[in-house]
Amino acid sequence: MGSRMKEFQSKKSPLFVPFITAGDPSPEVTVDLALALQNEGADALELGIPYSDPLADGPVIQRASKRALEKDMSLEKAMKLVANMRAAGLTIPVIIFTYYNLLLQLGEQKFFELASQNEIDGLLVPDLPFEESKDLQKSCSAHDLSFISLAAPTTSQGRLKEIGNTAQGFLYCISSLGVTGARTSFANGLDRFLNEARSASSVPVLIGFGLSSREQMQQFEGKCDGFIMGSTIVSKIEELGPDLLREDKKREALQTFSDFLSKLVPLNVYS
Prior knowledge:
Elements: H1 3-10, E1 15-21, H2 27-39, E2 45-48, H3 59-70, H4 75-88, E3 94-97, H5 100-106, H6 108-117, E4 122-124, H7 134-142, E5 146-147, E6 149-151, H8 157-166, E7 171-174, H9 190-200, E8 205-208, H10 214-218, E9 226-229, H11 231-244, H12 247-262
């Protein structure tokens, strides 16, 4: 595990990890958005790789993938984009969120070479079952990357313990079954699930899928170590997209994005 992820793990709760799609609304603006997220308190960044068949994603992120694919974004290009983020001042960990088919197409060895060259800190593969991920998890460890594991509310205690024992970086606990997207309610038994996950895991436990406000985060006060948020942020990027792509409107649009984030990031949510 690299130094950036170690620093992430040592930070005081609540941790905040936003998700954006690489290339939406453009590769250059993706760099600006990453920096805005860091400036507004993000502790790490999930960088989603656009895919034509995103099984775990709801309509908001599907549309973002479509826009990014129209900009010719790919896994390799997205990984190289992280180097631009670093050059521009991004210091927080970056976790690549990609479907397994894209990783297979690129090749695992090529992936690890690019991860090293472009200062990438982690990998999350949502469609790769835990039981089938062990070789990839070992390869990530060998290359100083954190392999981020997922757990769902339906995960049995025994399986959750196994996932928690091998978790790297942080453990991503899914709030609800189904695809991503803002929700007004979450799975039954979520408090029990989070408590079991924290007991099983030696790394921070973060909850994601459906969170869209500080008020929702406060429901889980003291029950997890942080939050992952995607669709609400990606929806705001979609709204601001036309202005973000205009040089005469870009600065104002980025300020609007930062103002939006300042009301969203869970500052002092546990106070």
